[in-house]
Amino acid sequence: MARSARSRTRYHAPRQPWEREVRGGSRPNEPLDAAALPEGRRGRGRRRRHGGNERGAGHCPWAARTGFGLADAGLKPDDPALCRAAEWVVAEEVTKRGDWSVRRPDLAPGGWAFEFENDWYPDIDDTAEVILALSRTELAGHPSVDRALNWLLGMQCRDGGWGAFDVDNTQKLCREHPFCDFGELIDPPSADVTAHIVEMLAGIGHRSYALERGVAWLLGAQEQDGSWFGRWGANHVYGTGAAIVALVAAGIAPSDPVIARAVAWLVAHQNEDGGWGEDLRSYDDPSWIGRGHSTASQTGWALQGLVAARECDAAARGVRYLVDTQRDDGTWDEPWYTGTGFPGAFYINYHLYRQVFPLSALGRYLAQADGRG
Question: Does CATH place domain 58-221 in 1.50.10.20?
Answer without folding.
Answer: yes
